[in-house]
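Hey L., structure's done. Input below.
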Amino acid sequence: MHMTTTTTTQFLSFTLGGLEYGLDVAKVQELRVLKALERFTSDGEIVGGVAVSRGVIMPLVDMRAACGTSPDAPDPMTDVIILRLSTCTMGMVVDGVTGVVSLAPEQVSPVPGADQAQVDYLIGLGQMGARRLILVDIDRLMSVRRPQKDGARQVA
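Output:
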């Protein structure tokens, strides 16, 4: 009996602004409904404040605002992905989680037209039939810093 082994990677898929994304499922600590978290609001553009989950206070990043869509009031489909990153634990607000997808290396291709030096947080495009996922390296994405404005200091 001959068996072939292919290494697949599992990605948590989620939607933002009508597009479907994927991140390494190993970075996910838990999934929560936004209104189930104790939340302290902020006037930040992207950081929607902090949330408390299981006694841990963490920043809550609203990816809907980061992607340029105006975040509406949370509805039952609004999810928070609690991430365990290399530098911290944080919550990421998305339109909704759609599942876990296993992709083999041959199902992942480079993002067409993307300048890898500028978007090194993009792993590639995952394809399963007609379904496409934009795959992101969540550690790199969450470490992206906005360009400094004239005279502004960047705080670590």
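DSSP finds two helices and twelve strands in the chain. The two ends are 56 Å apart (CA to CA).

-- N.
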